[in-house]
Design brief:
about 400 residues, alpha/beta, eight-stranded mixed beta sheet, 12 helices
Length: about 400
């Protein structure tokens, strides 16, 4: 069966078309960004229903700049919790290491807030706009097996033998991207770090830890993070540790006993959170080494398919949103030349996302410091003013749509 995504509005006036593989945050955002350039989008998602698993995520001002550019910023804000601070604590002695204010001065500096939100809520905020868009068509339960391109465009084939054609293709199909396997062909880098995620109801959260901020408790080879969700009615809890096992990337049900075995040496204040969840999801994490190209011709990648990263800087979804907006702006600048647009997009997104990948790895090392390295880490930010913190974060949170195509 052939399925042609090309739409025509008359001879010589054919609507350009793009296939987007993947219906996560990045894929939906890419679809919205492309339709703003008059492009028809066929969205292909392997799951039976478009949705998100997981718990909370953090959104910096750069994410809100992208959401605003996509026309969904206010919808996302209505579902988010705006934080007062970003806090880092030492999980061994419960001493404060870093506190960054994210109130009025922060918003004035970066042009947007810092917020936390349930992953399903940010996904829904974009999905609602996608569902109303007449240029976007969905197809779920569609797993891509292969892709190819020729002078006329790009074709993908799903595991049922269905074929889909369009002018171009964006692979937004996650860490295990089928599209990346064909465009780059590199292996994932399994980190050996395991992440457990859970949501705790407000009444089950210790009073002293009901803090309107993402709070990170940094311990030896482990850390915990908690922050409010959904108006403070729930709290997101994330714990991370260096696994004793040989890990393979994937998600499965977690074990409370396993979590407790990695957090024996931490202070009672953060430790009490480990008893609160009634169920856990366990992620063995992976990223990839940055590369100098994501695609060729009229094929490119976006989000985790392009630059999977660990969670230590809370930038995975933020980078995918930046990608989507930048892709749309590149198409706008290059007109009908989608090949040129994709290469322009890659030329600015590859170095920026690589910096985030490498910075994220370094932050993970600092969070999990032990011995003398822990002592040095706790001294790094002593005496730093809020404006100095903001200066250090300018490269990340200062991203703006109007400058997104400028070399970084």
């Amino acid at each position: 069966m052939g399925i042609d995504t090309n739409a025509s509005s008359g001879p010589g006036n054919r609507t350009r078309s793009v296939i987007v593989v993947g219906g996560g945050i990045g894929g939906l955002a890419a679809a919205l960004a492309l339709t703003r350039q008059g492009i028809a989008v066929q969205l292909l998602e392997q799951a039976a229903h478009i949705g998100e698993i997981g718990a909370g995520i953090q959104l910096g001002p750069n994410a809100f700049a992208a959401l605003d550019a996509l026309g969904v910023g206010q919808t996302a804000r209505a579902r988010a919790v705006f934080t007062d601070h970003i806090i880092m604590m030492d999980a061994v002695d419960a001493q404060e290491v870093v506190r960054i204010d994210t109130g009025e001065a922060f918003r004035a500096r970066f042009g947007g807030p810092y917020a936390v939100i349930h992953r399903a809520d940010i996904h829904l905020s974009i999905l609602e706009a996608v569902q109303k868009n007449p240029l976007i068509r969905f197809r779920t339960s569609t797993q891509i097996a292969s892709m190819s391109q020729d002078a006329q465009g790009v074709e993908v084939v799903d595991t049922n033998g269905n074929r889909y054609r369009a002018d171009a293709l964006v692979g937004a199909d996650g860490v295990k991207s089928v599209i990346r396997a064909q465009t780059v062909g590199d292996p994932v880098r399994v980190t050996g770090h395991v992440v457990y995620r859970a949501v705790v109801e407000r009444e089950n959260m210790p009073d002293e830890l009901r803090i309107n901020a993402p709070v990170l408790w940094a311990g030896p080879h482990c850390h915990l993070v908690h922050y409010p969700l959904r108006g403070g009615q729930q709290y997101n809890l994330v714990v991370t540790f260096h696994s004793r096992e040989a890990e393979e990337w994937g998600v499965r049900e977690g074990s409370k006993d396993e979590v407790l075995s990695y957090f024996e040496g931490i202070h009672p204040r953060p430790h009490q959170m480990l008893d609160r969840p009634t169920s856990w999801k366990r992620w063995a994490t992976a990223d990839r080494e940055p590369v100098d190209h994501w695609g060729q011709g009229r094929v490119t990648l976006l989000g985790d398919a392009a630059h999977p990263m660990t969670q230590y800087m809370a930038q995975g979804a933020c980078m995918a949103l930046e990608d989507a907006v930048t892709l749309g702006m590149a198409v706008s600048q290059c007109g009908d030349d989608l090949d040129a647009a994709f290469r322009l997009y890659e030329s600015v997104r590859i170095p920026r996302s690589a910096r985030v990948v490498w910075s994220t790895r370094e932050m993970g090392r600092l969070y999990h410091a032990r011995g003398v390295e822990r002592t040095v880490r706790n001294m790094l930010w002593t005496g730093r003013s809020q404006s100095q913190f903001y200066d250090a974060l300018q490269w990340l949170y200062g991203w703006k749509v109007e400058h997104c195509l400028a070399p970084t």
